[in-house]
């Protein structure tokens, strides 16, 4: 019986890849699309508030929240903070597949 050589895969976690994975996931879910709808509603509400009451600090807040919701800035900030604080994301990983098992080394 011939011995097969193990297959090795090595990888590091990258913040940009985690954020991009989140963006791809959110594009395919209703929840991700609902943030765009919420942002449009907030901008419309801010415009109505501005027309009814004139310049008001509430209208600025709704526009800021709409900007944050449209570009998913809050979720990106949460991912950034979790990535920077978790030491597991800073380790080098190595997967070794052989005929009998799979080994994860870090």
Shape: elongated
How much helix is in the residues?
55-70%
Structure class? alpha+beta
The count of helical stretches stands at: 4
Straight-line distance between termini: 31 Å
Instruction: Provide the low-confidence segments as ranges.
Output: none
Name the helix and strand elements from N-terminus to C-terminus, one letter apiece: EHHHHEE
- Strand content bin: 15-25%
Number of strand segments: 3
Describe this structure in words.
By secondary structure, the chain is of the alpha+beta class. The chain has a 3-stranded antiparallel β-sheet, with no helix packed on it. It is 60% helix and 15% strand. Helix 2 (30-53) packs antiparallel against helix 3 (57-70).
Quick recap of the structure?
This protein is 60% helix and 15% strand. It has 106 residues and is an alpha+beta fold.
Give a quick set of tags describing it.
4 helices, 106 residues, alpha+beta, single chain, 60% helix, three-stranded antiparallel beta sheet
């Amino acid at each position: 019986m011939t011995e097969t050589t193990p297959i090795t895969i090595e990888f590091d976690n990258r913040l940009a890849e985690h954020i991009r994975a989140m963006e791809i996931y959110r594009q395919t879910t209703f929840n991700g699309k609902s943030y765009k709808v919420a942002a449009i509603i907030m901008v419309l509400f801010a415009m109505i508030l501005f027309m009814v009451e004139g310049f008001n600090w509430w209208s600025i807040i709704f526009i800021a929240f709409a900007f944050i919701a449209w570009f998913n800035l809050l979720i990106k900030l949460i991912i950034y903070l979790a990535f920077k604080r978790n030491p597991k994301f800073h380790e080098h990983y190595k997967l070794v597949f052989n005929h009998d098992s799979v080994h994860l080394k870090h």
